[in-house]
Amino acid sequence: MLLTITTTHSPATDLGFLLHKHPDKLQSIELSHGHAHVFYPQAQEDRCTAAILLDIDAIGLVRNGGDRGSESFSLGQYVNDRPYVASSFMSVALSKAFSTAMNGKCANRPELVDVLMPFEVNISVVSAPKGGELLIRKLFEPLGYAVTVQGHTLDAQFSEWGQSKYFTVQLKATTKLKDLLSHLYVLIPVLDNEKHYWVSQHEVEKLLEKGQGWLGDHPEKEQITKRYLRNIAGLTRNALSRLVEGDDAPTNEENDEVDVEKEKLHTKRLKAVLGELMASGAKTVIDLGCGEGKLLKMLLKEKQFVRIVGTDVSHRTLEKAMQRINFYDLAPMQKERISLMQGALTYRDRRFDGFDAAAVVEVIEHLDLNRLKTFERVVFEFARPKTVVVTTPNREYNALFETLKAGDMRHTDHRFEWTRHEFEAWANGVCDRNRYEVQTKPLGDVVEGVGGPSQMAVFKLI
Amino acid sequence: MKNNELNIPELSLVALIGISGSGKSTFARKHFKDTEVVSSDRCRAMVSDDENNQAATGDAFDLLHFIASKRLKSGLLTVIDATNVQSESRASLTELARQFHCIPVAIVLDVPERICEDRNKKRSDRDFGSHVISQQRAQLKRSIRKLKDEGFRHIHVLRSVEEIESIEKIEREKLYNDKKEVTGPLDIIGDVHGCFIELFELLGTLGYVVRTEAEGNLRFEVTHPKGRRAVFVGDLVDRGPDSPGVLKLVMSMVKSGVAFCVPGNHDAKLLRYLNGKNVLVNHGLEKTVEQLSGESEQFKNELKDFLHGLVSHYVFDNGKLVVAHAGLREEMQGRGSGAVRSFCMYGETTGEIDEFGLPVRYNWALEYRGKAKVVYGHTPVPEAQWLNRTIDIDTGCVFGGKLTALRYPEEELVSVKAKAVYQIPARPIDFETQQNGLTHQHEHDDLLDIDDVTGKRIVTTRLRNSVTIKEENSIAALEVMSRFALNPKWLVYLPPTMSPSETSKAEGYLEHPAEAFNYFRSQGIEKVVCEEKHMGSRAVIVIGKDEETIRTRFGIDGEGLGVCYTRTGRNFFNDTALKKQFIASVHEALTQSGFWETLNTGWVCMDAELMPWSVKAQALLKDQYASVGTAAKIALDDVVSVLDETAKRNIEGMAHLLQRFSAKQEMVADYTKAYQHYCWPVTSADDLTLAPFHILATEGSVHVDKNHVWHMDTIKSICDADPGLFLMTNHRIVDVNNEVEVNDAVAWWTALTEQGGEGMVIKPYDFVAAGKKGLVQPAVKCRGREYLRIIYGPEYTASENLDRLRNRSLSGKRSLALREFALGVEGLERFVMKEPLRRVHECVFGVLALESEEVDPRL
């Protein structure tokens, strides 16, 4: 919201020339959603401070959010931190208010442009939701700044809520003003990891231009680029997102180690499932809970399968699966083999009837335990495919994920994770009740004493 | 039948048969509604623009059959105006009639060729030669004899122009099965199988007065002092000790009009035997034959007539009740065909034979979705139980079970135990097993069918006719329901959304009670109840007196005493221990307050607000509310101090800027206070506060027929039992036309909201209130000035902001609130009426689906 630049260069008031803003005047610049005010809290020979203050129209942000304002989560809300932080709005304000300085021009005193001056910058406040103080230091320190960061508690009345993602930042360096401004212009939105406007090709050029001479050598250049160009379009606010209650705001709490491991494991898992499906001799197969369609894509490549159906409870996910298998561009003969439909495993569904085989890959653990009985009836009592392949994580293996706290599950939406024994016991029960026979197998690399990271049960109708 | 009248059944497919020019269309126009007549000439014209285009005949008949089938499906009489002189063309019509279980009727217009030729000549568009007419005439002559064999059940042959013209009226007769005018009360009695003593006793229990030794062959005279009538589901005979006695009793009741009877398979077989048909005398028929041997020929003849005259099934009470021996699918009810008769008597089998050598019966009731209740017998069961609005009341009396009657419309079951085991059943019936499992319905309800929730749906509600659920919304609801919601058996209700009052124009306010009172005044509602609005999270509580009640009433086993769920049907608590503790406390308070006894119930569904807000909205508070507050406070403190410093420099415009940002600083401070007010830490259930505001439903009642003062008073006694957990909601009654009362209420609201309260909810005094334009909003909220900062942002009160925010539209929200309200109440009513879960779930699912409609979330 507020950024001040102070210099003790002698005479300090040269700052006025450099910024092309008169020290004794208040100047207001119009922004797309409000104003930026530029003024000088002090303008003495020995010390001169210029301030740029954002005056963002929070209501206007929502009401006439321009071309896309209302689509982004944080902009769609009236209760919004945007007016109070230094974000991409600040970058835009800097470039508008100090464009000549940023471009290294100074009509009256051109010699000042390349003078190294001592600067102190104070920003109140930056938002650094992913990275915090560490990232602030990693971004500015390599550029020669002495960085002072002050964190803030979220709410003094509720200390148990912990720290906020906001920081008051002070940067000190002896540098050229135009470099200082370019650094701020690029790095403030990088910290914030969000932009109030649509990121387009144009933005790439801006980054290259503003980053000239320093970004190429910055140790964090990859992260800076990635974050700067972040497309925060987000998902269109469809009917579903309006149903998601506050405490389920989409957060990605899974940690990286589990993520990478998961990806590798998932490929192995799908190969194993595909192998079972092929070995079963099935011609028709239904993927119950097909997700984004990885298995469907593999099934499509096998001529053995003449009819492939993918179902998922999430309509959005199905749309992604359609894209993954290039549904609309498939050749007519291929298209005839496959179809996708929304379906839930907690409702009897006649469209599940009549398949040789069904795959239920990493699905059951997303059901509440007391709903498993319903799932069992839907698949094993009514749909009754000749072969059913079910996979689920093996909880015993969790101990090997160092970053996973004891007792935690691998995904926030997992309602349970089973040991090998628990899975086997359930599978045997299913067989007894529905006249199937089952074989359970580990998935992934088996570790002595804990088994594979995941496990699979192959059911055959007797 | 009078000479100038023809009689045909009400639901028939009428084939007019006559050569070209015989006057079929004229006849059809005279006697039938325009829409009832499907003409081949018209169809030819529709598909080819030419009535006489013979090349279009194939397509024209496709269309004709299509139209006819749609009409017959809906149960509408249909007349086919085509020559129909060839047996192939008639065969397709009788087939159509069979398909829809309608009665095929033939009306032949047999007019001399000469007259037809003359008529055709007068018409320029009919230029086919006389050989065509001759050929048709020859076909017609051959046809008349064959009609009966072809399956036409009513055949009228009109042999001259005079006879055709003399017909003044075609009288439509009701089908024999149509007893819609009989609304009851009725006592429907299960399979008797010759168990005379038990039947006699049951009739007595049901209040019938049976006089034996009466006059006539049958010797019984039965009456009911309250005018009740009996309905026998058939299988009067075989296996039991006294089939003749049963027959005499039932025949005399039917004869005197005190009973109806539909035929069972055993009754039909007996008739075939009596008619000398070659039947195997087994499965208990041998006993009947022996018992009948001493009866008079006169009785046997009377018996034959009686059995012959039995109608396959009856439709009673304006179509709300169907009685058939083996039950009846919806599409067959009230119709007549061989297939209907056969289904009524034998039901359906899967074609398999079970281990006892008996055909495996297909349980049609599992898929029954009809509106009418179906009462039937045929298959002996240990207990009569409702399933999808059907009930099998054959409780195997002859096998040592009991003889059961269902009282209608009371739906009470009355039984008499068998005096003996008269026959060992081929397939054992487990009479002894204690009913410790779930009911058939509850078991069936374990699995809902996707077809009952997806796609575009129209739900009929008592309060607001039909509510339409769009497909896109049911798609969204399906995901949320199946991923997050509780076991659907708990979800008997989801609360409706609530609209705010109209936007206020008063200085500094966006909402003000004046508009809420105006709204109700404009709707003609005089008395309203203002209730303090608590700021927590909406919570619906469904809780039972004991787990046994939850099992028997909800069909839920082993999931505890009750649940507390959010407005989208998910568990309120993620923490199981906290949930258990909370439910136990609520249960204790209900028990202490004598709630179960006072309301004579074993369960309750309550609508409530659960506080603090922070217990459910922790993430939202931290990520959004507290975050914005922190950022704003830290930044603005710095801004104001810098502006203070700059102000000393006397620069033009700076003073104004200081003022502007100081105001922001104050608004942000107010904002932080506003949300902090609704937060406190929760470590155990003792830290929770529950403010119930509706006792929605208990056994046998949905309390929307009570006013809100009743609800508040009933809630008060619960609150008194545990003032630590429960919070009584402050409320007051206001006459909207009384200025003093209105002003007092406004002052009350002002004080409440200035102390940090969210605001108030204004409800019509009666739970369900109708106004000038139908259903009135069941509640309108009026939120406080400070509270609205957490909705519209810290700085919303700045006048330039308020001016813009006032531009908001409530109509979408209001319509949504009414639709959801109607659905919510409907779901509860269905649950209380013990309807199948799918019928309750349809409403609950509907509310969830409607919640995904695009409406300004700040309203």
From TrEMBL, chain A:
Domain Hen1 N-terminal: 1-243
Coiled-coil blocks: none
Keywords tagged on the record: Magnesium, Metal-binding, Methyltransferase, RNA-binding, RNA-mediated gene silencing, S-adenosyl-L-methionine, Transferase
Reactions this protein catalyses: small RNA 3'-end nucleotide + S-adenosyl-L-methionine = small RNA 3'-end 2'-O-methylnucleotide + S-adenosyl-L-homocysteine + H(+)
This enzyme's EC code(s): 2.1.1.386
Residue intervals of the Methyltransferase type domain: 286-378
One Pfam family cited in the UniProt record for this chain: Methyltransf_12
Top-rank EC class of the record's enzyme: transferase
Cofactor(s) the record lists: Mg(2+)
InterPro entries with a match to the protein in the record: 3'-RNA_MeTfrase_Hen1_bac (IPR024026), Hen1 (IPR026610), Hen1_N (IPR024740), Hen1_N_sf (IPR038546), Methyltransf_12 (IPR013217), SAM-dependent_MTases_sf (IPR029063)
Transcription recorded as keyword: no
Similarity annotation: Belongs to the methyltransferase superfamily. HEN1 family.
Protein name: Small RNA 2'-O-methyltransferase
Automatic annotation (TrEMBL), chain B:
Signal peptide: none
UniProt entry tagged with the keyword Oxidoreductase: no
Matches recorded under SUPFAM superfamilies: DNA ligase/mRNA capping enzyme, catalytic domain, Metallo-dependent phosphatases, P-loop containing nucleoside triphosphate hydrolases
The keyword Transferase is annotated on this UniProt entry: yes
Span of domain Polynucleotide kinase-phosphatase ligase: 476-854
Pfam families assigned to the protein according to its UniProt record, in alphabetical order: AAA_33, Metallophos, PNKP_ligase
InterPro entries tied to this protein: Ap4A_hydrolase, Calcineurin-like_PHP, Metallo-depent_PP-like, MPP_PrpE-like, P-loop_NTPase, PNKP_bac, PNKP_ligase_dom, Ser/Thr-sp_prot-phosphatase
Origin: domain of life: Bacteria
MF annotations from Gene Ontology: kinase activity
Domain Calcineurin-like phosphoesterase: 186-382
UniProtKB keywords: Kinase, Transferase
PANTHER family: BIS(5'-NUCLEOSYL)-TETRAPHOSPHATASE PRPE [ASYMMETRICAL] (PTHR42850:SF7), METALLOPHOSPHOESTERASE (PTHR42850)
Protein name in UniProt: Polynucleotide kinase-phosphatase
The species this protein was found in: Chryseolinea lacunae
Lineage, uppermost ranks: Bacteria, Pseudomonadati, Bacteroidota, Cytophagia, Cytophagales
